Model the fold of this input.
Amino acid sequence: MYFMCISCLFPAACSALGVPDGGSVVQQTDGHTTTAMFTCGEYYTLKGQQALACRNDGSWDYLQPVCGEQMETVWEISEKFKK
Done:
C-alpha cells in the first residue's frame, strides 16, 4: 500500500506580505518552498526576522518585520550643532 503526501505535491500558499515603510521585500519560490527576504533603507533598522519561510500549513514561520527609524546618536546630534 502506498500513501501520497498531497501537501507535498501542492504546498499551501502563504498570505501576501506587505512592503515595510522604509524598506523592501523580495519573495522567491522554487515550487516547493517560498521565502521572503526583508531589507531596510538607509536611516532605518530592521526589527524582526530578515528571512521568512512559508510553512506547509500556509502560515509564515515568523511575524512580518518592520523598518524603524534609526535614532541619532549623541555624537551625530552634537555634530549638527557645531555647523
Remarks:
- The mean pLDDT is 85.
